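We emphasize that the prediction below concerns an isolated chain of 111 residues; any contacts that depend on oligomerization or on bound cofactors are therefore not represented. The input was used exactly as deposited, without trimming of termini.
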Amino acid sequence: AGLYSLSEAYVAPECVPLAIYAGSNMIGFVMYTFSQYRITILRFMIDYAWQGTGFGAKAWVMIASLKARRPDQPIKVSINPDNEPARRLYERFGFEDTGRVGHGEHILRLP
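Result of the prediction step, given as a token string:
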């Protein structure tokens, strides 16, 4: 998924890729886009070995900074419907399920 995402960012300059590090170890990846009407988180991944250690929550500092830059725009993200840990994380930070499904994934929104 990481190689595909970096390739996508290369050919689609509106995609902004960011790495998540624990010390010198890359343990995750975030990619987002800004549009005229919203911010979309395309990827938010934490290595399986590092899940549940608090790094996902720490990475949300980046989400807060995006919201601060564009407070009038919602942030959207989609999740696999079976990924309850991701749903809990997003909901903990104020995301709401929109009731919409895109490409088999549930779409959440931070107003």
